[in-house]
Amino acid sequence: MATQHSRSAARIMMAPAVILLLGWMLVPLTMTLWFSFRKYLPLRGGDLGWAGFDNFTRFVSSSTFWPAVQATLIIVVGVIVVTVVLGVLLAILLDQPMWGQGIVRILVIAPFFVMPTVSALVWKNMFMDPVNGLLANLWKAFGAQPVEWLSQAPLSSIVIIVSWEWLPFATLILLTAIQSLDSEQLEAAEMDGAPLLKRFWYVVLPHLSRAITVVILIQTIFLLSIFAEIFVTTQGAFGTRTLTYLIYQRVLESQNVGLGSAGGVYAIILANIVAIFLMRIVGKNLDA
Amino acid sequence: MARDVKPRRKALNTALAWAAGLLIFFPILWPILTSFKTEGDAIASPPVLLFFDWTLENYAVVQERSDYMRYLWNSVIIAGGSTLLGLLVAVPAAWSMAFVPSKRTKDILMWMLSTKMLPAVGVLYPIYLMFIQMGLLDTRIGLVIVLMLINLPIIVWMLYTYFREIPGEILEAARMDGAGLREEILYVLTPMALPGIASTVLLNVILAWNEAFWTLNLTAANAAPLTAFIASYSSPEGLFYAKLSAASTMAIAPILILGWFSQKQLVRGLTFGAVK
Amino acid sequence: MPLNDLPASYDVDDILPAMRGGLSHDGTLYAAPFYGESSMIMYRTDLMEKAGLEMPESPTWGFIKKAAAAMTDKENEVYGICLRGKAGWGENMAFITAMSNSFGARWFDMDWKPQLDTPEWKETLTFYLDLMNNYGPPGASSNGFNENLSLFQQGKCGMWIDATVAASFVTNPKESTVADKVGFALAPHKDGIDKNANWLWAWALAIPAGTDDAEAAKEFIRWATSKEYIELLASKEGWANVPPGARVSLYENPNYKDIPFAQMALKSILSADPLHPTVKPVPYVGVQFAAIPEFAGIATEVGQEFSAALAGQQSADKALAKAQALTAEAMEAAGY
Fold it and tell me: Which spans are transmembrane here (chain B) (predicted)?
C-alpha cells in the first residue's frame, strides 16, 4: 500500500493546515490566558501587573454575571426547543409526497442563507417595530394593543429571530435523517394498525434521536456565541446581555481586558464541555 | 421512496407544506417587496402586499448614499479570498488524510474540529491586539486570513469526506500504469474530486459571506463588508423602511441564490459527516 | 500639536469662550471647533397655545410636567414630551446625566465614589420615568435622537429636549410637517437650582503629534473652522444649515440672527459650564459625561438599566441600585 515515500509526502502536505490551525489556536489562547491573570487596562497605560485570580472572581461575582448566564440559557434552550420541535414536524411534513416539493424545500431553507445582521434588522424594524411593524399592524387589525417586542418581551423576541434563522438547519438535517428511514419498517407498522402517534413515537423518533442530538450540540455551540443579533437589536439592553455580549462589552466597550479575558476563559471552558459530547458522536461515525 | 398515497392526502400535504414554506419565507419576501415601494407605501397601514407603484428608486438611493458597491466588493474579496486560500491549504491536507491514513489521522481530524468550537469572543482581544500591531485592522487581507482560519476545519472535513468516497482501486490502477504522485493528483484525483471541491467552495463562501462577529469587530470603514454595512442601518433616519429593504435585498440576493444550489451539500458540511 | 500661530484674520478670539476653554491647555489652543452644540427645548407653539400655557424662557421641570400633561392627546397620537430612552452613553445617558445636573445630582463625589444611590439621582430618574410613562410616546425605550427627530417632524411630540442642531431640522419645511410651529426655550431646571439640563458637545479638529505634513493639516483646520468656510457654506446651503456653535460672529451675523432658533442655541451653549457642571463639587470635567476613559463603558451599561426601567422591566430603585453596583465594580476594577 502506502510507501515510505508517499507517507512523508503526506506529512508535508498536511503540515500547512496543521501548523496554521495550531498557531490560530495556541497564540490567541495563550494570550487570553495570560491577560486573564493580568490587570490590563489599555486606557490606563496597558499592562499594570499581576492580578492573580482577581479577574476570575470579579467576573463571577459581578452583578451582571448571573443575569447574563440566565439570558444565555434562556436563549440557547429556547431556540433549541423551538427549532427541534418545529424541525421534526417540518421534516416529517416535507418527507410526505406532495406537489412542488423542491420549491417548498427551497423556501424553508432560505433563512439560513440570510446574513445575521440582515435578519436582525429586518425583524427589528419591519416586523417588531411597535408603530410601523407588520406585527403591530396585525395586532391593530384585531383591535389589540401592539406589543413593544424588543423592550417588553426582549428575550422571546431574540428567541423568535434566532429560531427563524436556525429552523432551516434543524429541518434540513432531520429531513436527511428521516429520508434514510426504512420505509418498509414504517409500512409494516402501518399494516399492523399502529396509530399515527404511536408510529411517530416508537419508529420515527428513535430513528431521529442521533440526528436530534447532533442538531442540539451543533446549535448549542453556535448559539452560545451569537452576537450580531443582539448587537443590532438591543445592544444588550433589557436583559438580553448574554455571556458573549458581556465579554464583548468588558473587552471593547469598557476596555477592561483582564476582566474580559477571564470571562473569555470561562466561555472557552463552557464551549469545550459541549464540544466533547459532540466530538464523541462525530468520532464514532468516523470509525464506521 | 415513492409511496402510493391517495390524491386527497397528497393535496393536504401539499397545502400544509406550502403554507409552512411561505410562512417561513415571508420575512425574506417582505423586504424584497418593500424594496420596490416608495417610503410612504412602505409604512402604509394596513400594509399593501402587491398593489403599489413599483419603483427602483430605493436601489439608486442606497447606492448613491452609501457606496454599496464598495461593501459588495469587500464582501466578494473577503469571502472569495478566504475560500481560495483555505482550499490551497486544505486540499493537500485532506488528500493525504484520505489516501495515506495513519493511526493519528482521526485524532488530527478531531482536533481540527475542536478548534472550530473555540468561542470567538474568548480570543477577541488577542486578535484585536495582533491586528493593531500588524496593521491589519480594517484591512481586507486581515479578514481574509481570519475567516480562512475559522473555516479551515470545515473545508478540511468536507474535502476529507468527499475524498474518502473516491475508490482507492482507481488510484492503485493509475499507479500500476506508472503515474507519479503529481500525475495522480492532476489527472486522476482532481477530476473525480471536482464536484466535492465545488460544494465545499460554495458552502464556505456562504459561511464567510454571512460571518458577523469578526467582520463587525475588525473593520471600520475601508474593509467593511456587507454585514457591517447593514448593521450601520440599525438606527433609522426619518423614513427608511424601503431603503433598508433595498439594502437588505442587495446584501442577501447573491448568497441566497448560491445557497439554493448548495443545499444538498449543506448537511454534510455542517454536521461534519455525522448525519448523511 | 498647538495651534497657536493662526493668522490674525482667523480671529481666534471669535471662537466661543466655552469651546475655547475646553480645547485649550494652559492657555494654548490644541484643537479648533468645527461644530458645537448644547441642548434645549423645542416645543410646538400651536399646542402650547391650545393648552393655554406660555413657555417661559427658562422653565422649571414642574412647568414641563404640567405642559406635557396638557398637550398629551393619545387618541390623536400626540405625546406631550419626547425624550431619549435608547440605551447608550451618547444616547439616553447624555440626556439623563444633563438632567441629573439640574436636579443637583452628580456621578461621583470628590473621592470618585459613585453617587447613583443618592436621593438626587432617585428624584431625577423617578421624575424622568413618570414624565415618559404618562406623557411619552410608546416604545420610548428604543428612541434615540433620530427616532425622536422623526416623531417630532411627524407632529407627534409636544416638546422635545435635545441637541440644538435639531432645531434646523425641525424648522426645515422640506422635512418637517410642523416647521412653522416650533418654539424654543432653555432646557429646564429644578425650582431653586440654577443648573439647567443642557449639555455641551463639540466636534473639533486637531493635529496629532508626529504627523507627516503638519502645515497642510493646519491649513485645512484653519480653513474648515474659519469664517470664510461658514460664509461659503451659507451661500450654498443657506444660513440655517451652517455648522453652528463654534464662533461668536456667527450669532452676530444679521443673516443668522433672523433664524428663529439661533439666539436660544447660543444662550444654551453659553450657559453650559463643563468645568463646574454640577451643584456639588465633582472631580471630573464634562456636563453630560465625566471625562474619564471608563465613562463610556460604565454609562452605556447604566443606560441599559435606565432603559429597562423605562420599558417597565424594573423599578427606578432597582435600576439605580444595579447602576450603583456596576459603576462601583467598574471603578474598583479600574483602580480608583
Answer: 12-33, 71-96, 108-129, 141-163, 184-207, 240-261
